[in-house]
Design goal:
The chain is an alpha+beta fold. The protein is built from six helices and nine strands; from the N terminus they run αβββββαββαααββα. The longest helix is centred in the last third of the chain and has 17 residues.
Length: 222
């Protein structure tokens, strides 16, 4: 497992840097007609690109991991990845009740206020006990590997579009982060969407004054 160091980029597993270059959640060309054709699996032994669940039939007894997605970023569950690579100093997050790490860097358009610790590579806000926000940033920060050569051009375009959307959404980006200080884990809670013009009109709308039914059609007997 890669421990990281100033000049020891050769100790990283041979599948790790190729993993960072891949684009996941695309349709499998071999199983395009299947509802399970989304490519979110990766074989660590074959290192032959993203796989769908049906492709795994050809990789029996191989080591593989599942890629998941949070706020348009790829993540891996800690329980899966820590068996194969050292994730020390990489911040973990709890998403959908599972602890995960992000695969690639996630720079913030605007730095948060009163921030005391940021990623050593991309300057994303971190809890004080961590140095990196992702596996990619750990590789860049602990070896001579040029981070720009790690990410594929397609992933760069995807990241840029996500950063821009986060910037337009607000300084909180992909959600408010709550620190669970006791175990050094961040939890995500969804941000409140901005109030639209339609919502404003609806909020200001008042009920009309109630009127009684006319008495003309009522028959009275004596």
């Amino acid at each position: 497992m890669g421990a990281g160091g100033p000049n020891d980029d050769n100790i990283w597993p041979p599948w790790l840097i190729p993993l960072l270059r891949e684009v996941f959640f695309v349709q499998c060309e071999l199983h395009a007609d299947s509802p399970k054709s989304e490519c979110n699996m990766y074989c660590l032994d074959c290192v032959n690109g993203p796989l769908c669940s049906l492709c795994l039939n050809q990789h029996q007894n191989h080591r593989h991991i599942q890629i998941r997605r949070s706020s348009y970023h790829d993540v891996i569950r800690v329980s899966e990845i820590q068996k194969h690579v050292d994730i020390t100093s990489v911040q973990t997050y709890v998403i959908n009740s599972a602890k995960v790490v992000f695969i690639n860097k996630r720079p913030q358009p605007r730095p948060g206020k009163a921030v005391t610790n940021t990623c050593e590579v991309c300057d994303r806000n971190l809890l004080d006990s961590f140095r990196f926000c992702s596996l990619g940033c750990k590789i860049a920060g602990t070896s001579s590997e040029n981070f720009e050569t790690v990410i594929s051009p397609e992933n760069k375009r995807l990241m840029t579009s996500v950063w821009e959307s986060e910037d337009s959404y607000g300084s909180n980006g992909d959600g408010r982060r709550r620190s669970n200080g006791s175990n050094g884990v961040s939890r995500f809670t969804p941000s409140t969407p901005p109030l639209t013009a339609t919502g404003i009109r609806t909020a200001k709308r008042r009920k009309g004054v109630p009127h009684r039914a006319p008495m003309g059609g009522l028959l009275l007997e004596y």
